[in-house]
Amino acid sequence: MKCVICKNDTTHKGKVTVTLENNGSIILIKDVPAHICDICEHYILDENISTEVLKKGKEGLLKGAELEIIRLKVA
Question: What domains sit in the chain, N to C, each tagged with a CATH number?
Answer without folding.
Answer: 11-71 (3.10.20)
